[in-house]
Amino acid sequence: MSHFYGSIPQSGRQTVPTARGHKTTGLTVRAASWSGAVEVRMYHNYETGQDEFNVYQTLHQGEGVDRLLHEGVVGDERRGDLQILDFYPDLKISN
Predict the structure, then answer these.
(1) Fewer CB atoms inside 10 A, N or C side of the chain?
(2) Is residue 37 within 8 Å of residue 59, measured between CB atoms?
(3) In total, how many domains does the chain have?
(4) Contact of 3 with 44, CB cutoff 8 Å
């Protein structure tokens, strides 16, 4: 039985395509435009016994940027939040 499930609920198709992944393979879903892509990777961490994820902005056809946007444990809102200063360390925030 599959451990991970993916679907495309909104697209030009009349049916909703789906994909499956196992603990051993994980699942990666990708949405792209001519300006770049966004990718979500879900996988099982055997050391912790938890399902984890990474969200990336990535290249598509040579366009876009390649960086990690967010990571964490599936179902755990307390872990993995990246802060704006992780992306822009020279940013000055004033009141």
Answers:
(1) C
(2) yes
(3) 1
(4) yes
